[in-house]
Amino acid sequence: LETFKSLSPAEFFYRNREIAGFSNPSRALYQAVRELVENALDATETHGILPIIRVYIDRTSNPMHYVVSVEDNGIGVPPQFVPKAFGQVLFSSKYKLRQTRGMFGLGAKMAILYGQLTTGRPVEIITSPVKSKRVYFFKLMIDIKNNRPIVLEKASWSKKKEWHGTIVTIALEGDWGRAKSRIIEYIKRVALVTPYAEILFKGPDNSYFYYPRVTTKLPRPPREVLPHPYGVDLEAFKMLIASTQESRLEDFLVKSFQGVGKKTAQDLLRKIGLPLDKSPKKLSLDEIKILVEEMKKYERFKPPRADPLSPIGAELIVLGLKQILQPEFVTAITRKPAVYEGHPFIVEVGLAYGGAIESSNEPILYRYANKIPLLYDEKSDVLWKIVNELDWRQYNVSFPAPLAVLIHICSTKIPYKGVGKESIADVPEIEREVRNALREVARKLRSYIQKKQKVEETYRK
Amino acid sequence: LETFKSLSPAEFFYRNREIAGFSNPSRALYQAVRELVENALDATETHGILPIIRVYIDRTSNPMHYVVSVEDNGIGVPPQFVPKAFGQVLFSSKYKLRQTRGMFGLGAKMAILYGQLTTGRPVEIITSPVKSKRVYFFKLMIDIKNNRPIVLEKASWSKKKEWHGTIVTIALEGDWGRAKSRIIEYIKRVALVTPYAEILFKGPDNSYFYYPRVTTKLPRPPREVLPHPYGVDLEAFKMLIASTQESRLEDFLVKSFQGVGKKTAQDLLRKIGLPLDKSPKKLSLDEIKILVEEMKKYERFKPPRADPLSPIGAELIVLGLKQILQPEFVTAITRKPAVYEGHPFIVEVGLAYGGAIESSNEPILYRYANKIPLLYDEKSDVLWKIVNELDWRQYNVSFPAPLAVLIHICSTKIPYKGVGKESIADVPEIEREVRNALREVARKLRSYIQKKQKVEETYRK
Lengths: 461, 461
Ligand SMILES: Nc1ncnc2c1ncn2[C@@H]1O[C@H](COP(=O)(O)OP(=O)(O)OP(=O)(O)O)[C@@H](O)[C@H]1O
Ligand SMILES: Nc1ncnc2c1ncn2[C@@H]1O[C@H](COP(=O)(O)OP(=O)(O)OP(=O)(O)O)[C@@H](O)[C@H]1O
Ligand SMILES: [Mg+2]
Ligand SMILES: [Mg+2]
Prior knowledge:
By secondary structure, chain A is of the alpha+beta class.
């Protein structure tokens, strides 16, 4: 006879932690570092603060245990939210339609959970919000069965100097020997696309990596937006109806979506034969289905706006590729925004060729999503599939060749394959847009190669 | 100013459904079929019932919508649990230490959720438990915000004939054109390792695939076990203490773990200096840490037992490989059980060479986990890494070569990389065991190739 039960989200992710990237001590150390660094960048850049980030990994008396500490000068965490922000799984300030690195409400908690189950030690949080006059200290553990924080200690004191930000310190089992090269590569690739950030990294072997700020020009911070009508599904639509204050269907459409003006709403509703002033909450399920179906095919919505998103920029991609690769040829483009399932997204592709790049049997691929470098699971990423399915000979490239490709996707939601954020799922609209962007830069490479060949031929004659 | 909120597990997986394999209509159709088929096999084989499984995919008036219906002769679902089993995310009868295909409490709900958000239609469940005199009918939807079922309709009637089992019918958006070959391959690979099951599949294009039962010999059903002491972490240990009825530490160890006899428990406790009769609930956190640390290094626990697990068996693997590949040479082994993080696991490897197998640049890999065929994300699977990192020339195989490898891992917990169950994470103990198993069968292949070469040389002379 079968016995049934439910699990709290904390117990679910504790039992299945390899799903969040915590599959072994080496991978866990990497994942803990990146979850904290990504939180630090979200707390600074997203809020118009030039990031200063310190990452310290120290040894402990136990050769398998390390202490990871990440400090930032960000907006801090309001003290009343600290316990849940760090002690309750699926609790977040990023459950919005805004481009941030974080999106699951899980990252910090997974690192803390892993520390707790391997060392038994609590996490220490020190934080001070921007406008606050006090600094707050917390020692926390997670009550896994019930998915809630256990506050072991808390304290606060008045600020002695002008400081705002957060320091998160976790003791956990790790494997620096195996994780070192990946962690260092991750930090380097973060610095490549955030030249306005100052990053200091110290490893447990006392190796230091320092990336100074090379520009004080911060990209415009991403903004929260309304969903775009393309691909909005039935359930999302029902949730918008449930939370709307609008009593007229026409106003509901204009206020709930981006890209829907008054005229467009009227045209769409007349097309389906729904009254402009009907109350959205009075729509029957069949009327909702017809409306959603029609919105999917409707051709006159304005395309999504680019300005709420925060791309790296073609200029910075070229600069970054030049710096790390010293290529003979480099080009980059930032595409206009497209949409998938109501989410606007921008694809950026950079391509570097020749020079100091070593020849290899396939292109070297640098993947980024919302400015996060993706280092694992390359071969199950849709981006790798696209780069390797391209017929490069059509662009005068025959392997082995010295070719590197950088692809960045930014969006209000990145369709990751897993909560460990390592590879991107096969979403048709994204696939199509990346393929077109790649062909665009590949054509530029081809012109360069052809010109160069012409010059060499003329020279030989 | 940041605003914080929490999500229910249903809303979390609704918003991030690509993480569960529902990333596009083609993939969703595949995933829905497999989630239901895996539930059907768990409901039969795990309970000593020879499986009879029917999978029907029908078209609807909407060219993008299909109806998927899976019927089994399994143990059924008790009516009081049907709403939660199919309407509450993270609700399951498989949250145990037992080898089953299901493990997350998510699969059926994801398929139902996807159907709901793409077609707006409820799932229909018909079920009758083995001992019941009645058949039960439910029409359900999922309240996503609150993670609970909405029962739209229910009914029951007395059984007219001897039937037990379950029929799950879901209407969802799909893409049969793109999904067809994968779905058919999946069904075929299921049949390969379940020759005691009768499986009928009907596609929306009225294509039929019928796999009759070829043996009535059911493998012994898997049994629930206690955790093995190796690699049990601090949190798991604390949960065992919280739920134990034992008042003496020695009895607690013997009763809570497999492989720990009375003498072993006494020896271990004396080694650390803990009293045999101390109450486990009175252990301090430091004492727990010392005990867990010591258990990890202790060498005298009995190894895990094989009989609670349910391998395919070397004989069946050889039979299956012969049937589908018609090779010249085939061998298979089932290894003794090993342990990772308290979970016993068994590795089985089959190897087929030559004959009708086409030559290719890398081995053809058939991956199975708890008898589930894994078709996607091959290149991010630890199994693919191991097969391709092996130096096959040491075994007289040089590519291109006609070589196929089948690897099956069965365990009380498969460390999947994602909740979509498509690839296996890098767990050191499993990696080591698979590598050794692969070398074992590769050596047999080498002897065969060497013998064959000798014969050919003698023949030429
Ligand atoms: N360094 C930090 N500064 C400010 N706020 C932070 C910081 N770290 C975490 N937070 C807050 O805690 C919340 C939870 O962080 P957590 O990493 O668990 O989830 P997330 O970042 O929202 O999503 P993800 O799981 O994708 O990382 C964040 O949403 C943010 O509000
Ligand atoms: N065909 C079936 N026959 C009997 N019980 C079933 C059937 N399908 C589902 N169930 C019951 O419903 C529960 C929930 O199924 P669901 O697929 O959502 O999760 P799971 O199988 O436990 O785990 P997973 O997410 O890994 O599939 C199962 O644990 C099982 O008890
Ligand atoms: Mg985060
Ligand atoms: Mg299931």
